[in-house]
Amino acid sequence: MKVRMRFTKMGKVRFTSHRDIARVWERVLRRADVPVAYSEGFSPRPKLSFGLALPTGGESLAEYLDIDVDEGRAVPSLDELPGRLTEILPEGMESTGLTLVEPGADSLQHAVVACTWRIEVDGVTPADLAVAAEKALAAESLVVTRERKGKPVTDDVRPALVSLSVLASPSSDGTEVRPERPAGCVLEAELATQTRSLRPSELVRLLDAEGLAGDVRVCRLHQWIEAGGVRAEPVALPDAPAPHAHGRAS
Predict the structure, then answer these.
(1) pLDDT at 204 over 80
(2) CATH of the domain at 98
(3) How many CB atoms are located within 10 Å of the residue 2 CB?
(4) Residue 200: is its pLDDT beyond 80?
(5) Domain of 174?
(6) Segments in the chain forming alpha helices (H)
(7) Are 26 and 42 within one domain?
(8) Model confidence band, residue 167 (pLDDT cutoffs 50, 70, 90)
(9) CB 187, CB 129: distance < 8 Å
(10) Cα(7)–Cα(9) distance, rounded to whole angstroms?
(11) Is the same domain home to 45 and 97?
């Protein structure tokens, strides 16, 4: 049996690396007495599979973890498991839901097609940020340079910019932006992860080309999967918004 867990990563714990978060989960599941299945071989490892890595320093309301459960041992109540794990998790991490994974389902790495991000920007006026966002959406192409196999490669990532808007108040997850951020200095972007992805840091650099400057703080609000032409979250929450439709935003 495989279980898919949704959890948050907020506050100071955002500086914990992806690898260290994996170690945190190994310890928490062991303390909660969850019967995690182990791999075979000389060095057995717990069968845990994480979704797309969150940038170190980034926050998230929608992180995911797949857990292979050893059904030969006593399995705790799945309804009670999120609360049980939250009691053990470090501050800033909370288990917010879970679901069973159907046999043969795609891994999180392959299933997630897009993510929604909140990007808080310092050192920029709301008017300048709005102009930069409008230019990015109106652009026929957005080119970034990346390194592959030690060589610089240029990619047009405009198709990966699904939507982009400047927020004046709460974002779509229902949480207020931080009070030290002036109204209009927060972006909400939906960025594709397949087939050509766009990272929040790359989007900010593209906007910087319009003369913007300052530090940013990102929070992943949602991850989206697609099945049978319908998009949804891997583990949906009751108040989750509907995803944006396919196609270029305007």
Answers:
(1) yes
(2) 3.30.70.580
(3) 16
(4) yes
(5) 110-232
(6) 18-31, 81-86, 108-111, 126-138, 200-208
(7) yes
(8) confident
(9) yes
(10) 7
(11) yes
Whether residue 26 is contained in a domain is answered as: yes
CA 160-113-27 angle, to 5 degrees, is 125
Written as six digits, the tokens of 1 are 């049996």
Q: Are 217 and 104 in contact (CB under 8 A)?
A: no
Closest CA to 66 of 101, 28, 22, 17: 101
pLDDT surpasses 80 at 215: no
The one-letter amino acid at 50? F
- Is the pLDDT assigned to residue 180 strictly greater than 70? no
Residue 46 gets which letter from DSSP?
Answer: B
Each residue's pLDDT tens digit, 128-154: 888 999 999 999 999 988 888 888 889
Residues 96 and 123 in one domain: no
Residue 63 banded pLDDT, cuts 50, 70, 90: very high
Q: Beta strand pairing status for 59-68 and 216-227?
A: parallel
Coil, helix or strand at residue 72: coil
Phi-psi label, residue 88: left if phi above 0, alpha if psi -120 to 50, beta otherwise: alpha
Q: Do 92 and 123 have their domain in common?
A: no
Statement to judge: residues 35 and 57 lie in one domain: yes
Residue 108 sits at φ, ψ, to 5 deg, of: -60, -40
Cα–Cα distance for residue pair 45/171, rounded to 1 Å: 39
Cα 42 from Cα 58, distance rounded (Å): 35
Phi-psi label, residue 141: left if phi above 0, alpha if psi -120 to 50, beta otherwise: beta
CA 21 – CA 15 distance, rounded (Å):
10
Q: Supply the DSSP symbol for 79.
A: T
Over 80: is that where the pLDDT of 212 sits?
no
Phi, then psi, of 190 in degrees rounded to 5: -105, 120
